[in-house]
Amino acid sequence: MSPRNGGKPIVIIGGGLAGGNAAATLRNEGFRGRVVLIGREPGIPFGRPPLSKTYLRSEEDLDGWYVRPADWYAKHDVERLVESSVVAVDPAAHNVVLDSGLQIEYQKVLIATGGRNRRLEVPGAELPGIHQLRTVAECDAIKREAVAGRHAIVVGMGFIGCEVAASLTQLGVRVTAAFPESVPLERVLGEEVGAVIGAFHRANGVELLPESRINAFEGTERLEAAVTANGDRVPCDFAVVGIGIEPDVPTFASTVAQENGVLVDELCRASAADVYAAGDVANHLHPVFGRVRVEHFNNGEKMGRAAARSMLGFTSPYDYIHSFWSDQYDHKLEYVGHTTNWDEFVIRGSLKDGRLIGFYLLEGLMQAAVGLDRGGDPELDTDSEMAACARLVGMRARPPGGQLADERVELWSLAQ
Ligand SMILES: Cc1cc2nc3c(=O)[nH]c(=O)nc-3n(C[C@H](O)[C@H](O)[C@H](O)COP(=O)(O)OP(=O)(O)OC[C@H]3O[C@@H](n4cnc5c(N)ncnc54)[C@H](O)[C@@H]3O)c2cc1C
Fold first, then answer.
1. Is 208 part of a structural domain of the chain?
2. Model confidence pTM above 0.90
3. pLDDT tens column, 284-297
4. Do 348 and 378 fall within a single domain?
């Protein structure tokens, strides 16, 4: 392939998972024009999952998580601008402005800027020793703190908090975890499964402080303690705050519709001509789930690819049945579908043993399923129980709860 130089490029803002996959797909699909990939971070596009798991525990480097090998971009004439931020996108003029002052005119632009960590706005939040986690640099800073025998407080027990609490514990750090819900991951998985996850953490020695909000951090030179809303003081050597992300939407010079991210249609198109969005930043219209913004690896990868194809004129809607995974200790969680609201939760397997598939239904409609140490990876094993669950969600099935719970009924038999 010999891409032509000159001409207005397709500009991709964000050199992360969605951006990297979009660049790779443009070339895979035979696009020969210029591709410019602009990223705030150093390094090449990669997947972040190991940052809270194997890389944090120094068990793995990031090579296996690169979207494409380091030399792929130059070989395929993808122009990469690293440690460069786009400070404005002008959809009317079809150009982007970088922090260096450089302006680039585009034919099409993809917003793949991901999310930024929500900050805990409390006194003492700027003290050294308080960390967040999204980038490799932030992970390396946590690694330097994670010396066996030290005491960490993890604030928030969503996926990042849970995984970091597990990894730090595995490194010999004593962990206290403070979170406002009654069990970890309650909002995503519900009370029953959250309680099982909480039990995993307790069994590994994590001290859980449910229904606790951190109101202040204290310390003279650096962090010495976190103070909860009810006045408890938790002495600690360092903290990791994982309280969610917000979509990192760039500044637009003219209107581009936004609501909890950049609003895009089923072809990843934003409201302004030639503007597309993908990944964590994109609030997309999904044929099964309706409007949804998803903050998971599989979506970043697949939506980046879908947006690239849309930019090239393909017209298939982005209809991936969302899925994600989480690893904590030696436990594996798989989830397919999407829901924040269900009125029936059916279990196949046992909460007591912590091996189960849980089904989330709303008015009988199967919206999502979680597999805990059971069910397989639906992406890797297309015959697995979790793959059957993805099929059930995709076909908008209304399987009877009794059959879902009954081990004698094959899930695939319900998904025909
Ligand atoms: C520690 C961690 C562990 C995770 N583990 C899992 C997991 O186990 N399973 C799972 O499903 N998901 C996991 N995720 C979520 C997953 O990594 C994200 O959903 C995915 O990275 C989203 O891809 P993205 O391309 O939208 O965003 P990103 O990969 O974050 O890429 C966005 C890029 O855009 C850059 N950027 C932002 N604004 C600008 C600008 N104005 N100019 C230039 N560049 C800009 C950012 O610096 C960033 O490099 C994890 C996330 C984290 C942080």
1. yes
2. yes
3. 999 999 999 999 99
4. yes
